[in-house]
């Protein structure tokens, strides 16, 4: 019987069961150059839409030699295209170095996270793609091309949606390693969002607000800071009495250490530990980015849908991301608030609510996360990015035959 391949959540069944597993960059080039049909890269599977799907073949980089090469000046690290952030953390930390941020999950691949502008949090922190100073890409003709910040194309290629080729290696900015403390506060009053939202979001290296939209306030505030928090409450929220998981009923031992205990960057920036699977995949995810100056209004707009949202929601997380110049980044030229929704695993029930949230956020020029569930028309997606035309031209130069396209990208790129 034909084996069905799915994404991590199981809501997407890929249109092929053919997977190439090259063991070297040379083999990647051979696979690409000899491809008779379409080809997409299979990463860690944490996309929730058909961005990674294909009716041709998939190519996995999981069998490439793991590469973590620290630059001679100790300001960069070169990694292979199949490496996960959790596997980068240990050797980088042992060398006394760090990347500037991490996503909630350390289980995701570096290349896949970068290609979709996945992010961590912090008013001064750009998304993960902003750390990329170089890419090595196998184009549709099998040629290996290297881009650096000296090349104007890099800003277009970094958040590339897998449309330019196979990213076999990336070079990332690194800095000296640092420690953080993580605190969780509970029951932030709704009035605090009106009175001190900007102060709250800036009161840590990374700040996350979690709500189930069952009431007007915020259920949990996760603060990741260099310095200890002062005693007492936090804008009316009280310090949690023990470890917490963002989703009620889920085991807190899956989460990174809390309670203000200092620890290395890679053990505090993610919400979840690398050694645990954060959930069984029984969820769907959506996320929209709005300009940060509209944060209060956007939160209020979703609150108007509280009952609709809460009925199909596990938890909603709100975080900030700094502006950047990457062409297809949702944070392109605007500081952003991201509203992330972890839904129940029921596509039929969730999709109408997704459409409702999109309509509510439309007045704020919301941009969806490329790898999550959304229903935004592709014409509206193109219009949301000032450099989209430049990106489409870049794709044509790298992949004139459309080898790395799929039906979803055909609609987006034309």
From TrEMBL:
InterPro entries: ALO_C (IPR007173), FAD-bd_PCMH (IPR016166), FAD-bd_PCMH-like_sf (IPR036318), FAD-bd_PCMH_sub1 (IPR016167), FAD-bd_PCMH_sub2 (IPR016169), FAD_lactone_oxidase-like (IPR010031), Oxid_FAD_bind_N (IPR006094), Vanillyl_alc_oxidase_C-sub2 (IPR016171)
Domain named FAD-binding PCMH-type: residues: 12-177
UniProt keyword Oxidoreductase present: yes
Signal peptide residues on this chain, from the entry's feature table: none
Molecular functions per Gene Ontology: D-arabinono-1,4-lactone oxidase activity; FAD binding; L-gulono-1,4-lactone dehydrogenase activity
Matches recorded under Gene3D superfamilies: 3.30.465.10, 3.30.70.2520, 3.30.70.2530, Uridine Diphospho-n-acetylenolpyruvylglucosamine Reductase, domain 2, Vanillyl-alcohol Oxidase, Chain A, domain 4
GO cellular component: membrane
Highest taxon, organism lineage: Bacteria
Keyword set, alphabetical order: Oxidoreductase
Pfam assignment, any one: FAD_binding_4
Name of the protein in its database record: Putative FAD-dependent oxidoreductase
Organism: Actinoplanes missouriensis (strain ATCC 14538 / DSM 43046 / CBS 188.64 / JCM 3121 / NBRC 102363 / NCIMB 12654 / NRRL B-3342 / UNCC 431)
């Amino acid at each position: 019987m034909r084996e069905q391949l799915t994404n991590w959540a199981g809501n997407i069944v890929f249109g092929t069961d053919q997977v190439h597993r090259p063991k070297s960059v040379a083999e990647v080039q051979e696979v690409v150059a000899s491809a008779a049909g379409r080809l997409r890269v299979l990463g860690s599977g944490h996309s929730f839409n058909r961005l990674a799907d294909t009716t041709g073949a998939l190519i996995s980089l999981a069998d490439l030699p793991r590469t973590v090469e620290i630059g001679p000046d100790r300001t960069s690290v070169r990694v292979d295209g199949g490496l996960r952030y959790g596997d980068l953390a240990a050797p980088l930390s042992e060398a006394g170095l760090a990347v500037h941020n991490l996503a909630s999950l350390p289980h995701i691949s570096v290349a896949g996270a970068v290609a979709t502008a996945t992010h961590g949090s912090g008013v001064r922190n750009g998304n993960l793609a902003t750390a990329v100073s170089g890419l090595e890409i196998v184009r549709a003709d099998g040629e290996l091309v290297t881009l650096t910040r000296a090349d104007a194309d890099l800003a277009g290629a970094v958040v590339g949606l897998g449309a330019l080729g196979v990213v076999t290696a990336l070079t990332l900015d690194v800095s000296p390693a640092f420690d953080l403390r993580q605190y969780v506060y509970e029951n932030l009053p709704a009035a605090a969002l009106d009175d001190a939202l900007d102060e709250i979001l800036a009161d840590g290296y990374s700040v996350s607000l979690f709500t189930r939209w069952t009431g007007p306030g915020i259920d949990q505030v996760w603060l990741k800071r260099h310095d200890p928090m002062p005693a007492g409450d936090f804008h009316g929220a009280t310090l949690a009495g023990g470890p917490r998981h963002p989703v009620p009923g889920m085991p807190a031992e899956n989460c990174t250490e809390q309670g203000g205990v200092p620890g290395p960057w890679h053990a505090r920036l993610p919400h979840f530990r690398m050694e645990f699977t954060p959930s069984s995949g029984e969820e769907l995810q959506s996320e929209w980015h709005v300009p940060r100056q509209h944060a209060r209004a956007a939160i209020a707009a979703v609150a108007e849908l509280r009952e609709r949202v809460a009925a199909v929601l596990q938890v909603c997380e709100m975080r900030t991301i700094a502006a950047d110049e990457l062409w297809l980044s949702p944070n392109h030229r605007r500081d952003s608030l991201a509203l992330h929704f972890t839904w129940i695993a029921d596509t039929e029930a969730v999709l109408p609510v997704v459409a409702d949230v999109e309509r509510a956020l439309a007045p704020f020029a919301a941009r969806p996360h490329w790898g999550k569930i959304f229903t935004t028309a592709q014409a509206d997606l193109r219009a949301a990015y000032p450099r989209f035309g430049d990106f489409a031209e870049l794709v044509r130069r790298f992949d004139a035959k459309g080898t790395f396209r799929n039906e979803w990208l055909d609609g987006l790129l034309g």
